[in-house]
Amino acid sequence: MNKKSIITILAIIILPLLAFWGLSWNKDATALADSNLPQIIKFSSSMCLECKEVEKIFNEIMPKYKDKVSYTAIVVDSRKDMNNKLIKKYNITLVPTVVMLDSNGKECKRFEGAAEKEEYEEVIKGLK
Which of 53, 72, 74, 98 is 20 to 30 A distant from 31 in Cα terms? Predict the structure, then answer.
């Protein structure tokens, strides 16, 4: 076997493995941003109607609080996403779920299912 054949065979074996590893790597946030700000973590699915309602609400209210609160959205659309460390840490069993943390990282409020805009804003205003 010549050198060119060996390189071709290795490329046939290695390139698909690298592609698989690169595509299957979970790119979702597994840790929250380091900040002294209170944090909001929203867990949702693109196939969930309630999640879409909650997304609209947060798209509307978060610009007002962008300097006061850190916001992270986690999309859970497949079994692979269930390996996300935040899902396990906060014991997320349904979507939508919104977890609100104070600046020390302590959970202050949890919304499971959709809530009214005013309810979210009331809690956000009280986060310290």
Answer: 53
Longest Cα–Cα distance of the chain, Å, equals: 72
Q: What is the domain range of residue 106?
A: 39-126
What's the average model confidence in pLDDT over 73-87?
80
| Domain at 47, CATH number | 3.40.30.10
Going by the DSSP 8-state scheme, the letter that residue 103 receives in this structure is T
Q: Report CA dihedral (74, 88, 29, 121) to the nearest 10 degrees.
A: 50
Using one digit for the tens of pLDDT, what is the confidence trace for 16-62? 766 665 555 544 444 565 578 999 999 999 889 999 999 999 999 99
Residue 16 lies in a domain: no
64 in a structural domain: yes
Extract the tokens encoding 128: 């310290």
Q: Which residues in 95-128 are b (16+ Cβ under 10 Å) and which e?
A: bbbbbbbeeeeeeebebeebbeeeebeebbeebe
Number of domains in the chain: 1
Tell me the C-alpha distance between 48 and 63, whole Å: 23
